[in-house]
Predict the structure.
Amino acid sequence: MSDRNGKIFCTSIASLSHISKAMGLVFSKLGMGSYNALAATQIRLLAAFAAFTLLITVRRKWPEMARALRDRRAMGCISLGAVLGPFLGVTASLVALQHTAAGIVSSLSSLSPVLIIPFSMLFFKEKVLPKEVLGALISIAGVILLFL
């Protein structure tokens, strides 16, 4: 895949990701109502588990899954990520979604690119330029302004 095609592919996947996330938020708000946010998170995770199980089965990737499960370090990091992301993060966003507009929750959720910067610097020793930080802050401010 050429560099240009790779960039187009990644941009398309990123766009699909954001569209899916937005639709997930809207449908979660519609379906959850006043239902318990932790239970709603569990339902979302069970649905995702079923979808991934089907995908792994159809693509015949179970041997790769078995190899991945034997990597203790990777499994530790992934497990911590699962607790912080889908468990704490999604549950907190669903609680917020119950008590405010989807646009506000989405705006606050879009702070992730800014919050990732210090962790990228700490864990991956990435060099972050001031203009990159400024760009992230401006993009977040623009999203927030849309919902004020």
